[in-house]
Design brief:
The chain has one domain: Jelly Rolls, CATH 2.60.120. It is 45% helix and 22% strand. The protein has helices at 2-11, 20-27, 45-48, 80-83, 106-115, 117-146; strands spanning 31-32, 40-43, 51-56, 60-64, 70-72, 77-79, 91-94, 100-105.
């Protein structure tokens, strides 16, 4: 199972260029999100707060307060707190049978970033890319409302 988790991390866009020896330390802390074998799961915010999600298999739909679904793609890393606002109360996942969600606690990732400079660089590059995307999308929305 540890080898499978290490390979999963290596396939993500965040850690693709990272050596396996560093991924091993993260893989040891990676946990399987238990859905109790239900393909559609309703959850509360505390179950996912401060977790970093990794999707394996097919994409998973995240539905917040029965709004528009957010598609979580495989081979990507998602910081759950950035997917929702703090006042959301209803969270649900819809997934196919071969979709698996792994997670790591935010604090564990941070500790590994402090211990391993290579992990830190990979995560900071990912975060920078996420922020650039958000800024671009916000600018496009502002420009669309001006016209």
């Amino acid at each position: 199972m540890l080898i499978e988790k290490t390979i999963l991390l290596k396939q993500t866009d965040v850690f693709r260029d990272l050596a396996y020896r560093y991924l091993y330390y993260l893989a040891k802390e990676l946990k399987l999100f238990d859905f109790e074998s239900d393909l559609n799961s309703n959850l509360n915010l505390n179950e996912l707060k401060d977790k970093i999600l990794f999707i394996h298999g097919n994409s998973v739909l995240l539905i917040v307060d029965q709004g528009k679904p957010i598609v979580l793609q495989p081979d990507k890393m998602y910081f759950f707190n950035r997917l929702i606002s703090s006042d959301n109360s209803s969270i649900a996942f819809e997934r196919k049978e071969d979709s698996i969600i792994y997670y790591i606690e935010k604090d564990v990732l941070i500790y590994n970033m402090f211990d391993y400079h290579e992990i830190e660089i990979s995560v900071l590059k990912w975060l920078n890319k996420q922020l650039e995307t958000e800024v671009t999308e916000n600018n496009q929305e502002k420009n669309a409302t001006i016209y």
